[in-house]
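Lecture notes, unit on protein representations.

Consider one protein chain, 86 amino acids long.
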Amino acid sequence: MTEVTNELMYELLKKIHQRMDKFENALGEAKHEIVAMRLQGLSTQTDINNIYAVTARIDQRLERIEQRLELRELAEKPQAPYTPPS
């Protein structure tokens, strides 16, 4: 069996420390990517809400135009064709 010395333990602890540093860096990068994805999702949601708002305004305007056209059609009375006097 191999003897466990203080130097061997020290070398193992140094390697573990280096690996933990790399792991912490990778974890930090993953957190930044998740935040970026969240912000992208919020941006997309805001764009969709803006599209809905514009569509609702267009729908309201179209309804008003249709109502005006219906009122105008009702106001127009059919007239008899013009017959010139003989």
